[in-house]
Amino acid sequence: MTILVTGATGFVGAAVARALLARGQAVRALARPGSDRRNLAGLDLEVAEGDLLDPPSLVRAARGCTGLFHVAADYRLWVRDPAAMFRANVDGSLAVLRAAAEAGAARLVYTSSVAVLGIPKGGGAGNEDTPVTYGDMIGVYKQSKFRAEEAVRAAVAAEGLPVVIVNPSTPIGPRDIKPTPTGRMIVEAASGRMPAYVDTGLNIAHVDDVAAGHLLAFDRGRVGERYVLGGQDMGLKDILAEVALAVGRPPPKVKLPRGPLFPLAWAAEAVARLSGGDGEPFVTVDGLRMAAKRMYFSSAKAERDLGYTHRLGAEAIRDAVAWFRDNGYLSGQ
After folding, report:
1. What angle do CA 264, 10, 166 make, to 5 degrees?
2. What is the pTM for the complete model shown?
3. What is the structure's pLDDT at 78?
């Protein structure tokens, strides 16, 4: 039996592929031609070249597979072409799920995000049932993932696709090669380039716990249900303090108001547009807008129904910093 994993060259997908291999599962990884495959180095798996926007390649990749983990996504907080993100995250997701189902895969796990979930108006932790609308989605990434999960759930109801949905919170840890927006923050902080912070918060999860949660969803999840795969709620001040502790730097003590940072974000985005490249500014308008809320979430449902567990955020931060240091991402370390 072979399981197809999309996004296995990336951060969370690589962790899912490794978790599958660790339990003796045959794995086929979908990889775009010319993609960075460092996360696949040394792994005993099959590579199928293809692209989420190339449906025939997905049919070939899914042939003979008994299950699918669709982890791949375009995860950026700023993009030059928003329509391209929607095509990848919405159209691409439906295409690969349908290809796997038509190939006979009996179980499909779709990786969504807590970005599509609501946050209680009065504060506290959101969950799978916290009310939310498309109008609450800040930025193209959240909007595209909201529409993607909406489309997946509709396909489950209308077409009978055997999909279980997982909603990771903010994964950090080893092999964040790109790195992700959160990984970039850790690199900047560990390198001494974040002397201040804004008053916000995140749910920090170790990437290996998130990967284990994917496998639990495959084994025990109910079709059509979604499960938050999270970790520990932490204020940004505390996250940066843990990063500083891991590298022996003093933690940032200056709290910045968000308002004065918006002109900096507008300028950074203007420079990125004029540069002609696809690089994402470190400070973005949507990122500042999102920072207005503490993005805290509860994994109680996954813990109760799947047996999901997670470690403390400090351990995830230490592992992330250690990997970035060992792989040359940190200046002055």
Report:
1. 90
2. 0.91
3. 62
